[in-house]
Amino acid sequence: MPTPIRSRLTALAERLPLGVPPADGWERLRTGYWTRLVPLLALVALLTHLPSFLRPVWSPDEGFLATQARMLADGGVLYDTVVDRKPPLLPWLYQACFAVFGSASLWPLRTLAVAAHLVTAILLASIARGRWGDRAGVGAGLLYLLVSIGLSPEDTQAATFEVFMLPAMVAAFRYAERRRWLAAGIAVALCSLTKQTGGAVLLPVLWMLYQDARRRGVRWIPALLKIGFGFTLPIALVAVILTKPKGFLFWVVTGSGDYATVGGAWLQMLGRALGNSAILIGAGLGFLLPVGRRLWLKHRHRPLPVAGEEHGSTTDLWMWLLSSVVAVSMGFHFFGHYYLQLMPPLVLLGTGAIATSAVRWKPVLAYTTAAATFFWGLALAWPGERLDRTTEVATAVAAQTTPKDTVLVWGMHPELYWLADRKPATRYLTAGFLTNYSGGKDGSLNVGEQFSMANAWQTFDQEIAKSLPEVVVDDSGLAPYQPGMIPKIENLLETHYEMVGVFDDTVVYRLKR
Known about the structure:
By secondary structure, the chain is mainly alpha-helical. The protein contains 22 helices and 5 strands. β4 and β5 (506-511) form a beta hairpin.
C-alpha cells in the first residue's frame, strides 16, 4: 500500500474511538467481526429466553393482547370496540401472527420476542464497539442478553410491550449518535407507538443534537426539523389508518390521567420500586460495580480522563438513563417489566466503565452469567398455581358455553378469555376500566364506579343489554372492586345469574334459565 494512503488511514484510525485498530486490521474488522458475533448473540438470546416457550401464557398483558387480537380478527375496531391504554403496534403484531399461525399458541410471538432481544443486543454491541472497541462490543451484547432475564420470570419471559420497544429505542440512540436525525426521529416514533414511555429516548436524542451543534458550530434547526418530521410522520400515518383517530388520542394520551396516580398506596408503590430495583442491581452487579467505582473516584479524586473516554463522554448515556428512570416512574406502578427499559443504558455505562479502566472482563461476565443462570432456573421452577387455576376455570367456562356465547370476566386476568376461547361480552377486558383499579395498586382509595373512565358504564350497560353473557366469572377475590362493592355488578349477578362453580377465590356464574 502506498505510504501516503497508509498515513491517511492511520491518521483516520487515530481519530476513531478507542480499540479500533489502524489500517492493518481494517479488512479483518470488516469481514469477520459480525459474522462471529451475531451467531453467538443469537444462541445466547435463545438460551436465555428458552423458558418462555414452556408456558402458554406468562402474564395478564399477554392474555390481554391475545384476546385483543382475536377481537380485531373478528371485525373489532381498535380504540372503539377494542380498547386499551396502549399504542397499536403490538396489538397489530399479535393480530398478524394469529392470522398466519393461528391463535391457539403464543409461540410465534415468543420467537419474535427472542428476535427483538437479539436486535437490541446487536445495536448495543454496535454502539459499544464504536466507542470502546471490539471487545466492548462483544461485552455489551452479551451483558444485555444475560441481564435481560434478571427480573421476575413473568416480567422477562413474556412477549410484552417493553421487549418490542427496546430495539427501536436503542436504534434511536444509535442513529442520533451518528447524526442521522431523520432516522432517529422515526425510531423514537416507533418506540412511542409500541409503548408511550419509549418516547423518553427523545431526551438523549435532543441532548446529542445540542452537543453536536455546540461543538461543531453547525445549524441545529434543520436537524431538529428532521427529528420532528421523522417523529410525527409515523404517528400521523397510524392516526390516518385508524378509523377512530380521536379514540387513539384519548386511549393512548389523554384518557389515562386517573390511572396514572398513586391512589394512596404509597408504601406498596415504594416497596415494589425498591424491590425491583434491588433485583435488577443484583442481576447486573458485575457491571454496575465498575460504574459505581468510576463515579466514586471521579467525585473523590477527580482523575484525569482515561484514554478514549473523551469520545463523546458518557453524558448522553446518563441522560438516556435519567429519561428511562422518569419513564419507569410514570404512573407509579413500578412493575418489573417496566425496568427492562433501564437495561440498555445501564449496560452501556457498565461497558464503558470496564473498557476504560483496569477491570477485567472475565469476572464481570462470569458473575453476570451466574446471575442469569439463577434467573433461568427460577423461570423453570416458577410457581404455576395461578396459571393452573386459570386454566381450570377456562376449561369450566368452555364446558358451560358454546363458541357463539359471550363471557364476562370480572377481574384483572383477561387471559381467561383467550384460554377459554370465548368472546368477551364487552370491550372492557378488565375491571380496571370500570373502577380505576390497577393490579399494582391494592388500596381501595379512588376505586369504584365513580372513578371509571368517562362514559365507560354507559357503554358497558349498552353492550350487556344487547346480549347478556352466558357466563360471568368473578375473579375479584377480596379486591376493592368485588361485586359487593360495585352495585351494578352485584345487581347483574343477583338478577340474572346463578352460581355453578367455585375455584378457590374465583366464582363462576351462569345465566338463569
